[in-house]
């Protein structure tokens, strides 16, 4: 039997097609370069640092220090276990409480209720303020002579002496609850703009047809709105899983760079350790401990993100059915 000879035809692209290909590759090249420089290079250096001591010796001592810091103070006098607990508390409030409420309230505003333009502006203004401006305003409101402290005193609430002298962020009994309250307020408006854009792409004719069939508000929301914007919701939830252990909540600004009293989070914890090491003028090898913390948290987060992403994809398949 004679073997068939398959001739591969050489495709010749025109000048205009080559130009289009070049433009497409140029668009992709920049994010790839960013990934290689700001993730691969930076994290590769951090991974090597995590296994080094200050003398440059490769060891697992940094990881032993990380795991021991879960139950006791580390060499910098910080309670990493408490910082991790605070971060996870803030994450739960942001993603398991505020996010579902934001999904519903954004949909309500998108359905054009009475005064929806005014409510939407009021709803989104806090997220438009810069972090420094917002924190300065909040710190003034919770100061010893601020609006909130005066209001609590006027209704007869007993406050610690430290609060009456220095404000709600000065006492351990009130500092973290105040931070939680602020995080909750900001969490309600965090994804408003993204969700508004997603809801606006759903044709109004679908909702009008559902109303003619007798569907109520919640039926429209669950059976029409959520399935139509599910890719956006899944993306936001995946990003949320990436930060499950590292919620920060601007602790540096609220605590004047101290993380006290009892407000330290993992983000602030890493900043404080890195700052203290840099102030000592130590070599790069001295950053092995914070690098080990970052590597440990990455390894803890990775399976959660992968499993969460898999579950969200399965849910999307069920929604599309």
CATH class of the domain at 69-281: Mainly Alpha
Radius of gyration: 26 Å
Q: Mean pLDDT, nearest integer?
A: 82
Q: Determine the number of helices (DSSP H or I, runs of at least 4 residues).
A: 14
The number of distinct β-strands equals 0
CATH fold-type name of the domain at 69-281: MetI-like fold
Distance between the termini: 50 Å
Given helix and strand content, the structural type is: mainly alpha
Largest sheet: none
Q: Give the ordered list of helices and strands.
A: HHHHHHHHHHHHHH
CATH architecture of the domain at 69-281: Orthogonal Bundle
Shape estimate: globular
Low-confidence stretches: none
| Helix share bin | 55-70%
User: Hey, roughly how much beta strand do the residues contain?
Assistant: under 5%
CATH level-4 homologous superfamily of the domain at 69-281: MetI-like
Secondary structure layout:
Elements: H1 15-50, H2 61-68, H3 80-110, H4 116-128, H5 131-141, H6 147-154, H7 161-166, H8 172-187, H9 192-200, H10 204-212, H11 217-242, H12 251-254, H13 266-279, H14 288-320
Brief overview:
With 321 residues, the chain is mainly alpha-helical. Helices cover 70% and strands 0% of the residues.
Report on this model:
The chain has helices at 15-50, 61-68, 80-110, 116-128, 131-141, 147-154, 161-166, 172-187, 192-200, 204-212, 217-242, 251-254, 266-279, 288-320. It has 321 residues and is mainly α. The protein has a domain at 69-281: MetI-like fold. Helix 2 packs across helix 14, helix 3 packs across helix 13 and helix 11 (217-242) runs antiparallel to helix 14 (288-320).
């Amino acid at each position: 039997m004679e073997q068939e000879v398959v001739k591969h035809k050489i495709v010749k692209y025109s000048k205009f097609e080559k130009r289009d290909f070049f433009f497409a590759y140029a668009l992709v090249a920049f994010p790839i370069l960013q990934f290689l420089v700001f993730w691969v290079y930076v994290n590769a250096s951090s991974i090597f640092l995590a296994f080094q001591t200050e003398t440059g010796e490769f060891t697992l001592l940094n990881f032993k220090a990380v795991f021991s810091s879960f139950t006791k103070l580390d060499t910098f006098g910080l309670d990493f276990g408490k910082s991790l607990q605070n971060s996870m508390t803030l994450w739960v409030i942001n993603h398991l409480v505020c996010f579902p409420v934001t999904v519903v309230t954004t949909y309500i505003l998108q359905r054009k209720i009475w005064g929806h333009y005014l409510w939407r502006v009021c709803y989104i203004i806090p997220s438009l303020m810069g972090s420094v401006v917002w924190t300065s305003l909040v710190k003034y409101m919770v100061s010893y002579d601020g609006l909130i402290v005066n209001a609590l005193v006027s209704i007869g609430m007993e406050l610690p002496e430290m609060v009456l002298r220095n404000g709600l962020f000065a006492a351990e009994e009130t500092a973290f609850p105040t931070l939680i309250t602020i995080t909750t307020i900001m969490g309600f408006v965090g994804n408003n703009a993204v969700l508004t854009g997603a809801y606006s792409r759903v044709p109004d004719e679908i909702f009008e047809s559902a109303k003619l069939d007798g569907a109520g508000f919640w039926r429209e929301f669950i059976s029409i709105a959520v399935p139509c914007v599910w890719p956006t919701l899944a993306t936001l939830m995946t990003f949320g899983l990436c930060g499950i252990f590292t919620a920060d909540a601007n602790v540096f600004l609220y605590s004047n760079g101290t993380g006290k009293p009892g407000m330290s989070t993992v983000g602030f914890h890493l900043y404080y350790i890195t700052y203290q090491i840099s102030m000592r003028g130590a070599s790069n090898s001295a950053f092995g401990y914070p690098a080990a913390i970052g590597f440990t948290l990455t390894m803890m987060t990775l399976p959660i993100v992968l499993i969460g992403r898999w579950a969200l994809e399965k849910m999307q398949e069920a929604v599309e059915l």
